[in-house]
Amino acid sequence: MNAVGKMLIGLHLGNGYGSQSGAWRMPGVDPESYTSFDIRVKQAQAAERGKFQFIFLPDGPGAVMTDIETESPVFNLDVMMTLAAVARETQYIGLVATGSTTFNEPFNLARQFKALDIMSHGRAGWNAITSSGEDVAANYGRRIPSSQDRYGRAHEAIQLIQSLWGSWGKDAWIHDQKSGQFAKKDQILPINLQGKYVGSRGPLYIPPSEQGQPIIFHAGGSPNAHQLAGRFANVVIGAAFTIEEARAQRNAFRAAAKSYGRDPDEIKYIAGLMTTIAKDKRTALDRRIQLGGSSLIQKFEYLQKMLGIPLDLSLINEPISESLLENARPSPYDPRSSNAFKIARQGWSVLDILAHGVIDYHPVIAGPGVEAADHMQAWYEAGAADGFWISPDVNSDGIDAFVDQVVPLLQERGLFHKEYESKTLRGHLGVPDQYGIDPRV
Amino acid sequence: MNAVGKMLIGLHLGNGYGSQSGAWRMPGVDPESYTSFDIRVKQAQAAERGKFQFIFLPDGPGAVMTDIETESPVFNLDVMMTLAAVARETQYIGLVATGSTTFNEPFNLARQFKALDIMSHGRAGWNAITSSGEDVAANYGRRIPSSQDRYGRAHEAIQLIQSLWGSWGKDAWIHDQKSGQFAKKDQILPINLQGKYVGSRGPLYIPPSEQGQPIIFHAGGSPNAHQLAGRFANVVIGAAFTIEEARAQRNAFRAAAKSYGRDPDEIKYIAGLMTTIAKDKRTALDRRIQLGGSSLIQKFEYLQKMLGIPLDLSLINEPISESLLENARPSPYDPRSSNAFKIARQGWSVLDILAHGVIDYHPVIAGPGVEAADHMQAWYEAGAADGFWISPDVNSDGIDAFVDQVVPLLQERGLFHKEYESKTLRGHLGVPDQYGIDPRV
């Protein structure tokens, strides 16, 4: 149990196809989803039907990270333009986008996220990250700064942006047509922050939203990430393969929050989960085999390293023999190895082992909805997560499958809310509204 | 006559209230228009009903330039978020926002405008400006660079952004589900531009829109502006008070285009026009008196300087006497002075002279629709403008007044199109589609 009393669920809305690189080729998928805002809106609406607390858009910003010859870019065309479209055509769901503190002017980030907060009536969240990829830096004609400089700038940028968000006081906007007072000038104040990396005088001329101002998210797992999130974030977008790993991460973030004088419950740890939900296990595995295509051969190569045994491609449809498995040594360098070994010992064929998603970015559920519900309940009750961000294999039907086959189980078990109790993201997450500091106090 | 064969009309969509500082207090105006995206969308739809070629959003970015105690900020909350909303709820009208080359990362501008171009199906334009206000620079914790550095960076930024827009070739996106080819990698190429001020490797992972890529606008009147626009722009957002001044500006931009090896017809000069359209002159003047409020007193002070004669506030409802007018010396330092003098000699009261808008940012039409149509026809036929960007006094009813009372007259006179002939901004402006350079040629 966490402070909200129920688990939180977010939808990973990426390139419009889904989390599996073969998603764009699947039957029923519009191959132009990458450029379709209609489809993005429809997917967000599906998540809202499932009462998800938020949708989450990762960003590099702007790198591709795939082989464009056969795969879609992994990121959204533009995360803020997408959320603007979604904001206009949804009512409840929180809208969270990644914005790099490394490659954005803080004033521009502040303005655009606050505008999103206004247009969504208080549903905006900013995933404040640092960018560490040289392919991203190259888009800006630069090299990636040192970790110290990136996090130094991130700390300054978040404080500056939160200050800009609060620079227009809660009750400053009068707009009284009779008296002619538009706003109280003495409650719209410059922030005058100048740091080593960034500065701004302000103020930002945008009044508070229905939740005051956006919420800070962070994604990362390093000690630097713990500190940044511990100081500023209300939500952490996590990545962990086991309950133990997730619980350790969650506790590290909670401890960091405490070290910055905050209540640990103010920070929610959201674990990643990838889903292929189908009526039964066999159907789910077949779907993932269809999705995997040629990438399963690459994964076949790597599976041998994970298990520490040689495998024969011609026997891919056979279980691994008992004698081979006796020699297996799950790699200590990959936290996914023990899961791969466990599934191998259940007697699945090599192809089916791969179809279980033993080699992917997050834990994978490939099976009926109850498997996902059981996984989520186990992690949640073990204190390993306050919630989950879901990456469906294929968005076009994978979001609906989760909404129709997993959400009702979680609701029946009392683990997930049945209705939105609020219309703001802060309301959904149990985070108090935030306004600027009243200069009159 | 210009290259398109008809005049072009754009709507200035600013803070949501209108161009007059008193607009937010007028009857029928929602005092919360500043934060209402519903209202912005409705205003854009009104312009689309009138077959306007584009809406135009100026930006500082982000400064206020008014007395917030009694007036709204002049700019939009965020120009890109507004255009995203408008893009989803209009079908034809072009969408043009100002983006500062001084205070944005070029890659971020490139990505967001191209995403807007995709979501609007080829209706995006970028008004590429340099920022020169110290109040703007203060938002970024910096001082305004020298004019040389600002324009140097602007030249580099526009070339870089156009290159990024063209980095995904016209026919590169295959998305063939059967063959599994997503895109042709050899037609999505890095741009590898590195200048003195900005650089980028790219590519930008966004395919062409229905018009290929966005159009470049520019706003400014200096020799630097002539050069920048002459090199890159298809449209200039102008500001001139007389036919002579506008024609000189237009010719300067055309000459600059020619000096850069372009056909002068490739650059369209769009003059500013502010409108108060009413059933008759008296009603229009009374509306502007109501709108002007206390600001008319400040303008009363300045009118004396423009005319070079002392005026008595107690006689504000009387015409200026013949004997006083004989001593008037219209100020040579303000191009609006001769117009103020002309109106004074027509015998209008001092208050009515002010209500004519003799002191405003652009020429003002306060009267029935035919006055606006006559003004536009005269300027257009004199070669002083290829079109006009209209700033209604109050958006809530001022856009409709223009659409219903001016547009039909222009259409009857054969000066303005009756239907959209295209669905892209390039189509509206007679500018050919633009794609990247095919590396195979």
Automatic annotation (TrEMBL), chains A, B:
<keyword id="KW-0503">Monooxygenase</keyword>
<dbReference type="InterPro" id="IPR016215">
    <property type="entry name" value="NTA_MOA"/>
</dbReference>
<dbReference type="InterPro" id="IPR011251">
    <property type="entry name" value="Luciferase-like_dom"/>
</dbReference>
<dbReference type="GO" id="GO:0004497">
    <property type="term" value="F:monooxygenase activity"/>
</dbReference>
<dbReference type="InterPro" id="IPR051260">
    <property type="entry name" value="Diverse_substr_monoxygenases"/>
</dbReference>
<keyword id="KW-0560">Oxidoreductase</keyword>
<keyword id="KW-0285">Flavoprotein</keyword>
<dbReference type="Pfam" id="PF00296">
    <property type="entry name" value="Bac_luciferase"/>
</dbReference>
<comment type="similarity">
    <text>Belongs to the NtaA/SnaA/DszA monooxygenase family.</text>
</comment>
<keyword id="KW-0288">FMN</keyword>
<protein>
    <submittedName>
        <fullName>NtaA/DmoA family FMN-dependent monooxygenase</fullName>
    </submittedName>
</protein>
<dbReference type="InterPro" id="IPR036661">
    <property type="entry name" value="Luciferase-like_sf"/>
</dbReference>
<feature type="domain" description="Luciferase-like">
    <location>
        <begin position="33"/>
        <end position="288"/>
    </location>
</feature>
